[in-house]
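Known limitations

Files may contain more than one protein. Parsers should not assume a single record per file. Below, a two-record file is shown to illustrate correct handling: read the sequence, read the token line, then continue until end of file.
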Amino acid sequence: MTTARVSTTPVSTTPAATGSGAGPEELSVWPASTAEPRPGDLTVGGVALSEVAGRFGTPVYVLDEAEVRRRCRTYRDVFPEAEVHYAAKAFLCRAMARWMDEEGLGLDVCSAGELELAVAAGFPADRIVLHGNAKTPHDLKKALWYGVGRIVIDSPSEIARLAAAVGPDGHQKVMVRVVPGISAGGHEKIRTGTEDQKFGLSLSDGYAQHAIARILDQPQLELTGLHCHLGSQITEIKPFLSAVRRMVGLMARLHEQHGLVLPELDLGGGHGVAYRPGEPVLDLTRLARRVRAELADACAAARLPVPRLIIEPGRAIAGPSGIALYHVVSVKRTGGRTFVAVDGGMSDNPRPALYGVRYAPRLVGRAGSATRTPMTVVGRHCEAGDVVAADVPLPADVRVGDLLAVPVAGAYHLSMASGYNLVGRPPVAAVRDGRARLLVRRESMEDIRSRDVGL
């Protein structure tokens, strides 16, 4: 039996080129419960992936509940002094909200829809933070109705709108999202700490300071702290340390100008994970130690008390906890390449087309031949860019009906899924202690027809 352990430190191994079994390095990006009792027959959470596919059909997402909880506890352990909020945009369902509550995490939401689903699952509204660069009146109304803990102000126009919605006798805690002018993240489309993108208020041009002054003139709004988010898939610690210095610098200026001492500092999330063996990941233990020291030093130099730290992991909790399962529907050799087409694709995972993300799918359910050959796994949709994984080593005898598993599929898959070609969005099944249960059912044709009211 081979068991994978997910490390919080970068790894430098690469997948084996031959052999039907999975070595420890090949399973390094899989949930910690992953095992191979027989060559090619993987189990996660004590459940064979082939069993999950047979029971729920494909495509299907498999979420390892124990892995989700383990990653939550890792964050609580390495950041014991901080508030840890799960970024719901990565993936949210009622069970996920319940797990976050039970593990003591807060929740970040970006819409009234995410908020209402979380509250419906019993998540305490006062531990929810509302984000978003373009919050609608409906978003703000629902946030106030449910009593969210904080609302992160992202633009000057939100200040007056929110103050009016709160009313003269009301009260709402708010933060201000600051753009610190730091470039970090795995792709230009997910870098949010620079000046040339839509989020936040700039530190360099004074817009952040101006917005804060306006908030201080609204007695019904209580400014509790500053917020920043540098981007996603960050695997280096240095950008976070730079953000600490710049945010504390702003706190020092606010103290000089307004006598203001802010009790909270939110450094966002964006903690990078490995999608394939050998890729770097963010070392959480080292990050926590370095950020804690940098924050203490910066505050001491500014003669400010150390604010309570808030962090917002999403992908780093959900991503490596999930697997996507597909059945092979065709194998075609053309133009010198082998294309393996599966029964899903960009409607359930648009990330390869959006960001060029690369995955490491593998054959499960049988061992396959020892010889591996480069193949491109493609989806079923009418787009040339519908590629699940390009030029990945798979057993040379891959055939129609085989089951392929794609690890690190728990974040930004179903949450970004679309209705393209009307194939319906996949279900989500949770596995734990040898049992599988359905969390989110498959979207049916009846679901799709019921929304079409044109006749």
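...continuing to the second record:
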Amino acid sequence: MTGLAGKDRGYWNAVNSAKLFSQLNPYFIFMDSLTLFPDTELYRMEREGKFTPAGEKERIEELQVFIKNLQIRTHLFANSSSNFYPVTAYLPKERDFVASELQHVCDTVSEDKMAEYRRNLKSLG
């Protein structure tokens, strides 16, 4: 889950997650992006200043790092509504293409526009 480690921790979360998944060697990986909703513990922690969520671009960069560090053949599904830019890919075959797409999003869409998308999510279902 991108963003779960919090602000400025996405890179290492991605590297460590990729190492773990590479050892587990699953056929499918489903990736979501952390979305805080009222009446949840992390939402409360954010309000109290005990947790700082990662920004939207950091989450996309985290997904890129995860994809680049994954050392297995697998189907990646990062296409739920929690992901600002939903992607699916067969890795490693589509690794470069997907990483390039994600970079294009980071380069062309503002953090504010991405954050607005997340703020407007009322549910993930």
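Parsers that stop after the first record will miss the second one. For reference, the second record is described as follows. The mean pLDDT is 96.
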